[in-house]
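Quick note —
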Amino acid sequence: MSAVQWYDNRPVTFLSTFVGAEPLMTAKRWCKGEVKEVPCPKVVLEYNKHMGGVDLFDSLTGLIGAGLDPRNGTIAYFFIWLMLLWLMRG
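Predicted structure written out below.
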């Protein structure tokens, strides 16, 4: 298991059994209106690559679950699951 702390806008700590700080890669970051390449650990790139589905799920649960009766929450999550399957097909 590796623990890596990386400073982006603020310190971010990663714990991973899959990948660690090595090898050092480059990531694109905005700095004063322009894109710069900065060195970052491999774990950061892997996290960013696979985080999109989680962010999408959080967005959908916020949109769909807001106006529904709490007793029907299971139905709402079922429809969110169906939308995720439709969006991630292919």
